[in-house]
Design brief:
Layout lengths: L1 E3 L19 E7 L2 E7 L7 H19 L7 H7 L4 E4 L2 H16 L9 H6 L13 H9 L7 E3 L4 E4 L11 H15 L5 E5 L2 E5 L8 E4 L11 E5 L2 E6 L21 E8 L2 H14 L4 H6 L3 E8 L2 E6 L1 H4 L3
Parallel strand pairs: 1-10
Antiparallel strand pairs: 2-3, 3-7, 4-6, 5-6, 7-8, 8-11, 9-10, 11-12, 12-13, 13-14
Helix pairs in contact: 1-6, 3-7, 6-7
């Protein structure tokens, strides 16, 4: 067993530590998957009120950023006429700014504007589609691309150039994890683990004094030494094709990414950042380690090619072991 520890330990997490405290578990459905929260309760934060607040927060994010909800703000943007400027609420603006920044840093390996390609390949709201031909992919790529968007951070507004389909599925779930974690902290909760569909963030410690331990996902049939992460002020996101097949598109080509990558896990202080970087590195494959090292991203890339599995660790993750 290998252990990955966060770069910083929050000493205040141990103040008033109660080894007899219970752990409360809440869960539910959102974004086509499950959410789950484990937390050490506080007297002024009842479980019923916390659940209601979590549900309301997640519903608000879906109403803004879901490409599956026809009435969401994102869907309205996707239908907007060419030249339309749309004002974005703070959450949407925060996610959009991060998405465009990571798109630029990854040179388009992560791209929030590939909704037309996602739909063409049958991974979006229209449902399964026949395998697209080259002319169809070329046409969809012509309507896609983060570089076609204009974002005004001062006024928090985004311009629809015409035909662009936003798809924030590679970053919004991570943002939702951060949002729920922030909600819990604002309610006075000091120790919690938040999960939405496999993306997790933890802060504080468990009543037994341990951090919130999480094992990185290992794809079936892959023999790797287990890697356990202490989610203490840390988040983890995993992307890969082993669960749902080859659904990770390379925005730069319009075709599924093909580097033999079966799984990418990223550790970061922000689940949103971890989510987006995991998506980018799934597209880039092992060649993306240079970018991960440059940006100090803690990442594990697992490949399976020629019958052999290989694990590639970025320098930042290696330094945490």
């Amino acid at each position: 067993m290998r252990i990955a520890l966060p770069p910083v330990i929050d000493g205040s997490a141990f103040a008033g530590h109660d080894p007899a405290a219970p752990i409360v578990t809440l869960d539910g459905l959102t974004m086509g998957t499950r959410w789950r929260v484990l937390f050490v309760p506080q007297p002024r934060a009842g479980a019923a009120a916390i659940r209601a607040a979590i549900v309301a927060r997640l519903d608000g994010i879906v109403a803004e950023m879901s490409h599956w909800e026809p009435g969401s703000l994102l869907s309205k943007f996707n239908r907007a006429a060419a030249g339309t400027w749309m004002a974005l609420p703070p959450d949407f603006a925060h996610v959009m700014a991060a998405a465009l920044r990571i798109a630029a840093l990854s040179e388009g390996a992560f791209d929030p504007a590939i909704g037309r390609l996602v739909d063409l390949w049958g991974f979006g709201p229209p449902g399964p589609m026949p395998a697209p031909d080259a002319p169809g992919i070329i046409a969809a790529r012509a309507q896609s691309g983060w570089h076609r968007l204009a974002y005004d951070p001062a006024l928090r507004r985004l311009r629809q150039p015409g035909g662009v389909g936003l798809d924030l599925s590679g970053i919004a779930k991570g943002f939702a994890v951060d949002a729920v974690a922030g909600l819990l902290q604002a309610a006075g909760i000091r120790h919690a683990l938040v999960e939405i569909g496999g993306e997790l963030a933890g802060f504080g410690i468990r009543p037994d004094g341990d951090p919130w331990w999480v094992d990185l996902e290992t794809p079936p049939g892959i023999d790797l030494r287990p890697l356990r992460v202490a989610l203490h002020g840390l988040a983890v996101a995993t992307s890969g094709d082993y669960a749902r097949g080859a659904h990770n598109l390379d925005p730069r080509t319009g075709y599924p990414a093909s580097h033999g990558v079966v799984s990418v896990s990223v550790l970061h202080a922000s689940a949103m950042e971890a989510d987006a970087w995991a998506s980018a590195l799934t597209v880039l494959g092992p060649a993306g380690l240079a970018l991960a090292d440059r940006e100090r991203i803690a990442a594990r890339i697992v490949t399976h090619d020629g019958g052999a599995a290989r694990e590639h660790l970025s320098a930042a993750l290696g330094g945490m072991l």
